[in-house]
Known about the structure:
The chain has about 500 residues and is mainly β.
Amino acid sequence: MKPFSLSKLCFIFIFAALLFWACSSPYMNSYYIQQQNKNVQGGGSPEPDWGGGDTPPPPPEQPLEPGTISMFSVILRDGKLAEPNHDTTVYTQLAGKLSASDGFPFALYPTNKFTDWKFSSNFSAANVPEMQYSGTVQWEGSEEEQWYNGSNASAGGNTISSMKYFRYCGKNPFNLYTNDEYDLYGEDGNPTGEKEVLMKRFIFYRFTGNGGGVVSLNNYLVAVDTYSKLVFSFAKPVEFKNVLGNQVPTKWAPVDIVSTGPGGKKYRFYEYDPSGYVTEDGTFHMSAAYKNNLASGNYDPAFTGKSPYLGFVGDVQKPMFKISNIILKNISIKDVGGDYPIAGGTDKAEFRYELKLRHNNGEWDIFSTNNGNHLSIDRGSQADLVGNYALTIEKPEEGTHRIDISCDIWENDPLAGNADDVIIKHEKSLFTLVYDEADNSWSLTGNPVQSYKDDDGEWKVTAVTMPKLESGQKETMTIGISAYIWDWIAVFKRAGWGDMELSFDVEWK
């Protein structure tokens, strides 16, 4: 066999890695490149083997009691709503969760438009799928699985050839919820006496292709709700192969089984937040959470209670404590050796982080982390951190409630042989909010402005601010941190104080 040149071999691996990052997701989602041992031949393909077929899926988040009406029953074809109470209960309930930027009110174009709508996707230079509908196409196959042969796609400027798009209409590719049904209501708000299969409204998409002619790709994408026009995540990679330091997914599983929401609770894919929505011109409007999660390699969909399928008609939304818009600002932390990335300057520091929360001294929930990876933040700039949090508090009027927030941030020094430098450690300090049932609000308590020193380093919390958080409001918590950073430069060890600022929005609604 004629050997590959080193440059050709590097190109192949770099291209494969690029494709992985271009297709990795959130929301989220199922944008996972899989290196296959086989090409998909002919029209069909085998059912996904995720190795968890005996694991039961989660029940509905709120099982219906007699006399209650499922939200599936009243979100109708073509984006229309049924009002069983013959008022605006359903509309008002949905408007309390979703805004125009989330795709509500739902678009009123016909559900039948999806019958022969042509689906395709490229991948942007920012490593985000660029899905779209355009024109029509003849989908081949059966009710179980349909496909068409598409044009070449682009991934970060590189070509994916032999593109074949697959769709599953009214059938979850992981064979979940096959027999689940709901009572059907008409536009007049009255029950029709008929039932409809739960999955009927969803179309699930994936594609296969070849990257550079050497890497076989098989990538699950998203589920589109053809009634509401919302887009949902439904798959997550669970096995990986290391390719020159890049973790390339090799197997997927349903987010219903392998992902968790706040408190470690499992949800059905359509109970997580929508990842976006589709307008009548075929444009996919994907959420910021979806895009940010893809870029960071976080494959779990967000959960903040936005799904229209949570709860039931007339369900009074329980009070929810939310965290979002997490930002880490590097005010003056320097990478003294300028050692990472290679050829990076002293102003380019790298960080790993983990933020967690607990309610009433319960279990800790991690709500933001880069899983030990390196997040580069230049001195004088800031970065959005992946993550959000939503905690339903069942009966806030009964007893005192307390929220503790803990942060763990380190400056990475991976190449110079230096130990990583601590910026702040978990529970040193704790940032505590207490609930006041008299006026239904949350306030900071205690004195988190403290100095710490141990074998790992020295740091101090210099300031913590957050206005009183009242019902229906959103406020920003801002935490000032200063840390003593050590680095070796040649044979000299140098140190100095540097500052950072962590902030996030806190909402009580």
